[in-house]
Each structure stands twice: as structure tokens, then as C-alpha cells.
Design brief:
The structure holds two protein chains of two kinds.
Chain A lengths: L2 E3 L5 E3 L5 E5 L8 H13 L4 E5 L3 H4 L2 H6 L1 H10 L3 H14 L2 E5 L3 H8 L7 E3 L7 H9 L4 E4 L5 H12 L6 E6 L13 H9 L4 E6 L6 H7 L4 E5 L17 H18 L8 H10 L2 E4 L14 E4 L10 H4 L21
Helix pairs in contact in A: 1-5, 7-8, 10-11
Chain B lengths: L2 H14 L20 H15 L5 H6 L3 H9 L7
Chain lengths: ~350, ~80
């Protein structure tokens, strides 16, 4: 199984503990107190990482567009955090032992991100999977990359992955993702995780979950997703860019716990009978018992034995070896047949 | 119904392509498909144009329902009495 070591030293891969990236997006509404509270909430909820957005209006739109769409400009201006604010947030993340990340949308935002502490990887948003010069720039930093794949067909996904690998950077996590907010259950297509594992056998696969509710992420972990990204918010009623499908903080904690439980439940692919299960053999399996009284020297046939609980004696798989043998002592109906009782 | 109420309703109908009868004070953000984040920004722009105002971004973020919107617009001199 492929693995990726993040900048923080954490190793991700199928079979390892799932990495939970809690996306606050614009849920801080540009308010640093709320952003700081989000860090603390994500940490308390058991997330491995809190992720912000590095976007500035000019990273996404032309000046002409922004003039024509003044509300977008004001919203992005208000909802954007700057590098000094990110530095404060990373400091708090360090104190709490949670990773910090923020999705960049420009070369400068990549550089800014990598100048911060506690940054485990560069996150590339789905919208940039066909932005090949951006993928190359990110790849050439040699930092681990988490690439979302929403809106992309398989050829575009393949090209995006190959573009990053061609930079000599193979520390890549590819996220299955559907870029609809929220995504209807029948459009989640979690089997794409299996598809990606097959198509990209050397790449660690994860899942960016835009569904409503808590079920999709642990199911994705069960299918091999090593990283889960999920949005959360303090107030679902407020107009924001993602509040419709964001979890509450309590739900985030529940989701993180469910993903880890899912991973633990997957256990080993090797067939192992545990010590506790071995003890159950004695309780639940059958043993060979005399079906009637047997005299010493009498030859055992199928009708003279019965297979009943408990399973502490000779098992049913010994029947063929018992039939045709004679008993070496008198036995009552219900006595166990043991090797020592056979001549 | 005041003239401003009519104009307010007309903006909702136009931006979200809904019937006037579908509008009531309980209508909230995300309750109709088009009132998502993109629709919200279109609604805010249309209201600013209609009433010749510029809303504070905090009010745009707090504009969470048909009823709350009317309360917020009061701050800008748009009354519904």
C-alpha cells in the first residue's frame, strides 16, 4: 500500500489511522476571534488539521469581473484572512497540536502557505485540477500535495496527477470529490475511491465529503480513503459559501470518531482467530458424545455417537477417525468420546 | 402592503424565479434551491440597486431570511410600514 509522509511527519495510507481535515472555509466570516475559536473547536473535535482558504478576490477574478460583481468583491474582501492572521492561527494550532492548512489559489499564496509553521501539505482545490502551471508550481516545491478532483473526468484527473508526478514530487494524496454543495447521496459515487486506487496504485487516496450527514466519510474510510476533508461551521443559518452542507462542531467530533472507528473495524486482511474468539470454540462448537451406552470393545458406528455442545472435546471433524474404532471402556449415553477411550 | 414591500417582494421573485405567493416571513436562506451563496450575492446586489443603498457586509452575512432582511433594510431607510 502506498504511503505519504506529510511535512509534519505524519504518515498517511490505507490501513493507517485516517487523517481528518476540518474545513472552516468562510465559517469565521473574517472574524479572527471566530477563526481562533474554530481552531480550538476543530482540535477539541479530534481533527488532525484545520483548513482555511487563502483566497483573495484578485486570485480568483479579473478586475473587470469584480467591478461588475461588487458583492462578491466585498464578500471575499471580508471573508479573506491575511498572512499575519494565518501566522497567529498557526501559532495557536501549534499549542493545541493540530495541523494548519489553507488552500492557495495563486503562486504567492503557495509561497505564503509554505512560510508558515505546522503546515502538513499544499491543498489544491478542485477548480485548479486543470490549471497545469499551478500544479507544476506546487509540485516543484516538493511539499506534499493533496489534490481534489471535483468536476474532473478521469482523463483530467490522470493529467493532473501526472503533471504533479512529472515534477519529481510523488508525495501526493488524491481526493475523490463531487463539487456540488451539498452533494446528493446518489451523486457521491464513493466507488470512485476504488477506481482511483486501481488507476493510481502508487498514490494515496482520500475523500473530500460534501454530502449532508455523517455516513459518507466512514464509508469512504472503509473503501480505503486515508484522508477525509469535511466542512464545519458554527452557524448553518448564516449565508456563507458552504454552510449548507457544513457540519456543526458536535457533528464534526462524531464524524472524526466514526471514521477512526471505521478504520479500526477494518482491522487485518490476514485471517487471524483472536484469543477471545478461540475461547468461544469451547462454548459454541460441537464435540463427539456417545449417543447411547457403549460397552468396552464395542465398535463405534455413526448411530452410536452424537455431535453436541460444548466444543471442549473431539470436534465433528474427527468423526471419520472415530467411526470403526472400538471403545476401551464402558461409556454412558452423553459421555464424551476421547482419544484415550478408543482402542 | 407598502410600496417598499412590493418592491422587496418583486426582487425576490425576480432573482429566485418564485411566485409572490411563495414568499412569507419564514422563508430562510437555503430553503429554496436558488437561494444559495451565489443566489444570495445576486439578491444583495439587486436590493442595493433597487433601493439605491450600499449594505454593510455584516448585514449581508446576517441577511438570513425574508423577515430578517426587512429588519436590516430598515437601517438603510427602507421601511415597510
Amino acid at each position: 500500500m502506498p504511503t505519504v509522509e506529510l511535512k509534519t511527519g505524519r504518515v498517511l495510507g490505507d490501513g493507517l489511522a485516517p487523517y481528518i481535515s476540518a474545513e472552516i472555509n468562510t465559517g469565521h466570516f473574517g472574524n479572527m476571534d471566530l477563526a481562533m475559536k474554530a481552531v480550538e473547536a476543530a482540535s477539541a473535535a479530534g481533527s488532525d488539521c484545520i483548513k482555511f482558504q487563502s483566497w483573495k478576490p484578485e486570485s480568483l477574478f479579473t478586475e473587470k469581473y469584480l467591478v461588475e460583481h461588487r458583492i462578491e468583491r466585498r464578500m471575499f474582501d471580508r471573508l479573506s484572512l491575511d498572512i499575519s492572521q494565518f501566522r497567529e492561527l498557526t501559532s495557536r494550532c501549534g499549542e493545541l497540536g493540530i495541523d494548519f492548512c489553507s488552500t492557495p489559489y495563486s503562486f504567492a499564496e503557495i509561497d505564503e502557505l509554505l512560510s508558515l509553521d505546522n503546515v502538513p501539505f499544499i491543498k489544491i482545490a478542485s477548480m485548479d485540477i486543470n490549471n497545469l502551471e499551478f500544479l507544476r508550481y506546487a509540485g516543484e516545491t516538493k511539499a506534499p500535495i493533496v489534490l481534489s478532483s471535483g468536476m474532473a473526468d478521469i482523463d483530467e484527473v490522470r493529467r493532473g496527477v501526472e503533471t504533479i508526478l512529472a515534477t519529481g514530487n510523488d508525495r501526493l494524496v488524491l481526493l475523490h470529490c463531487t463539487s456540488v454543495y451539498p452533494t446528493a447521496d446518489d451523486e457521491l459515487n464513493l466507488r470512485n475511491i476504488t477506481l482511483f486506487s486501481r488507476e493510481f496504485p502508487g498514490i494515496v487516496i482520500g475523500y473530500s465529503d460534501h454530502s449532508l450527514g455523517l455516513l459518507a466519510a466512514p464509508v469512504a474510510v472503509g473503501m480505503g480513503a486515508a484522508l477525509i476533508e469535511k466542512h464545519f461551521t458554527f452557524d448553518k443559518t448564516k449565508p456563507g459559501f458552504d454552510n449548507a452542507m457544513a457540519l456543526t462542531v458536535d457533528q464534526l467530533a462524531e464524524l472524526a470518531s466514526a471514521c477512526r472507528l471505521s478504520s479500526a473495524m477494518l482491522g487485518s486482511a490476514d485471517r487471524v482467530v483472536s484469543e477471545s474468539e478461540m475461547k468461544q470454540r469451547g462454548v459454541m462448537r460441537r464435540s463427539i458424545f456417545a449417543a447411547r451406552a457403549l460397552k468396552s470393545g464395542e465398535v463405534i458406528d455413526r448411530e452410536s455417537i452424537q455431535l453436541k455442545r460444548p466444543g471442549t472435546g473431539l470436534g465433528p471433524d474427527a468423526v471419520a477417525q472415530v467411526i470403526g474404532r472400538s471403545v476401551s471402556r464402558d461409556l454412558e449415553e452423553g459421555d464424551p468420546i476421547e482419544w484415550d477411550f478408543l482402542a | 402592503m407598502s410600496e417598499n414591500e412590493n418592491r422587496y417582494r418583486q426582487i425576490f421573485c425576480s432573482v429566485f424565479d418564485v411566485e409572490n405567493a411563495a414568499l412569507d416571513n419564514n422563508l430562510a436562506y437555503q430553503e429554496i434551491p436558488d437561494w444559495d451563496s451565489v443566489g444570495h450575492m445576486a439578491l444583495m446586489a439587486a436590493l442595493e440597486d433597487e433601493f439605491s443603498i450600499e449594505m454593510d457586509i455584516d448585514d449581508i452575512i446576517d441577511f438570513s431570511s425574508f423577515e430578517v432582511g426587512k429588519t436590516l433594510l430598515n437601517k438603510y431607510g427602507v421601511t415597510f410600514a
